[in-house]
């Protein structure tokens, strides 16, 4: 199973809309829209979990498409915590 990062999502987009989009390209195990922890408002990105082969295909066909009036940025999600790492000074 692979996790896909989906960015530049319209704030009004629902998990069901993302599930519908990605289920055209394979089985979707989960969809998680990310909200700001303090305000509860959407942050404009989500993670979609799919099986390995379907994930690769879904990334290739959905990256850059227009969805809900915005061009999606879709790629393989980095493992949790990697984006927080910084180089030592």
Task: Walk me through the structure.
The chain is α+β, with helices and mostly antiparallel strands and about 90 residues long. It has one domain (about 1-80): Alpha-Beta Plaits (2-Layer Sandwich), CATH 3.30.70.330. Helices cover about 20% and strands about 35% of the residues. The chain has two helices and six strands. The strands form two sheets. A four-stranded antiparallel β-sheet has the order 2-3-1-6. Strands 4-5 form a two-stranded antiparallel sheet. It is globular, with a radius of gyration of 13 Å. The relative contact order is 0.29. The model has no long low-confidence stretch (mean pLDDT about 90).
Strand composition percent: 25-35%
Number of helices: 2
Report Rg: 13 Å
Report the order of strands and helices.
EHEEHEEE
Strand sequence of the main sheet, in spatial order?
Answer: 2-3-1-6
Give the second-level CATH assignment, the architecture: 2-Layer Sandwich
Shape: globular
Amino- and carboxy-terminal Cα gap: 36 Å
The helicity comes to 10-25%
Number of domains: 1
Low-confidence stretches: none
What fold name stands as the CATH topology?
Answer: Alpha-Beta Plaits
CATH class, named Alpha Beta
CATH 4th-level superfamily: RRM (RNA recognition motif) domain
Structural class: alpha+beta
Note the main sheet: 4 strands, antiparallel
Summarize it.
This protein has 89 residues and is α+β, with helices and mostly antiparallel strands. It has helices spanning 15-23, 52-62; strands at residues 2-7, 28-35, 42-50, 66-67, 70-71, 73-76. The chain has one domain (2-79): RRM (RNA recognition motif) domain (Alpha-Beta Plaits, 2-Layer Sandwich), CATH 3.30.70.
């Amino acid at each position: 199973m692979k996790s896909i990062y989906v960015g530049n999502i319209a704030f009004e987009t629902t998990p069901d809309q993302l599930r519908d989009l990605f289920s055209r390209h394979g089985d979707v195990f989960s969809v998680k829209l990310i909200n700001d922890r303090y305000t509860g408002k959407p942050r404009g990105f989500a993670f979609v979990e799919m099986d390995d082969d379907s994930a690769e295909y879904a990334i290739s066909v959905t990256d850059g498409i227009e969805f809900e009036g915005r061009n999606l940025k879709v790629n393989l999600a980095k493992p949790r915590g990697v984006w927080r790492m910084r180089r030592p000074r």
